[in-house]
Specification:
The chain is of the alpha/beta class and 279 residues long. It has 11 helices and 10 strands. Keywords: Methyltransferase, S-adenosyl-L-methionine, Transferase.
């Protein structure tokens, strides 16, 4: 992208919003900026750059557009079916006293709450009363995290759930609004976390980072894969989005459990002797 004003907008995103925009693909930044340009009726980057200079509040709207990830509960049923099988094997093993999950890039909370609901159902089904379940849900966007903590959603976001599940785990607020019940909220802990600049959250059985890393360049992606490797306990699982694939050193650090659904299991780097990987 050679446009001088596009580069100036990127520069200001970095300096004013403290977002490391160079770590994102230009195609992604271009798409997100274009959304705001249309809404502001700016015909080109020069016009939008000048609009930003005279309307400082637009930077906050641009930040929200860059980081937003609109989701719904159990959006991709095939991967959730596979996750349910994985969770069930963990829940059925009475030796397992805890289950720790990291939902990285959790957006407004549909993924971690959706996982909590599946696990609660399985624990009830198998009379597993003593396993402690903790889901750590992280995102860079403070505003979206506050929304997630509230746990309020509209009916179309629950369209993949049946009425029994909705009535069991949600409180109906209005004809179109629902709130996640307290016993589900209790399982999920939300916190602000920068995937690129902060270290991993350790001791996890499972890390989910779905449809997030595609927005980063390949070097950053590989660094993130290895952070997730460090976050996992031995034989822990990493779950990516359908369009995301391991590459570089990370391909030696995980083995595919379900390649189609992008579910991988951690390998012991101490047993590997290639590519200068460190345990």
């Amino acid at each position: 992208m050679d446009d001088m004003y596009f580069k100036r907008i990127k520069r200001d995103i970095g300096t004013k919003l403290k977002i490391q925009v160079d770590q994102y693909k230009d195609s992604y930044i271009l798409r997100r900026i274009s959304v705001r340009m249309r809404l502001c009726k700016c015909k080109d980057f020069k016009e939008y750059y000048e609009f930003l200079l005279t309307n400082p509040a637009e930077f906050q709207k641009l930040e929200n557009t860059l980081t937003v990830n609109v989701t719904e509960f159990w959006r991709d049923r095939t991967v959730y079916n596979e996750l349910k099988k994985l969770f069930e094997s963990i829940v059925m093993d009475k030796k397992n006293r805890s289950l720790k999950i990291w939902s990285a890039g959790c957006s407004s909370g549909e993924e971690p709450y959706g996982l909590a609901i599946i696990i609660k159902d399985l624990m009830e089904k198998h009379n597993q009363k003593y396993m402690r379940v903790t889901i750590t849900a992280t995102d860079l966007d403070k505003e979206i995290l506050e929304k997630a903590k509230n746990g309020q959603y509209i009916s179309k976001q629950l369209k993949n759930m049946d009425d029994i599940t909705i009535n069991k785990y949600f409180t109906k607020l209005t004809s179109e609004e629902y709130e996640v019940k307290t016993d589900v909220k209790r399982i999920v802990q939300f916190k602000k976390h920068d995937l690129i600049n902060e270290g991993p959250i350790s001791g996890m059985n499972i890390v989910l980072c779905r449809n997030v890393i595609i927005y980063f360049d390949k070097q950053i992606q590989e660094e993130l894969f290895m952070k997730f490797h460090n976050a996992l306990i031995p034989d822990g699982y990493l779950v990516l989005g359908k369009t995301e694939m391991l590459h570089g050193n990370a391909r030696n650090a995980f083995k595919p459990v379900n390649h189609r659904e992008r579910i991988y299991q951690k390998l012991d780097l101490g047993k590997l002797n290639a590519d200068g990987l460190k345990n």
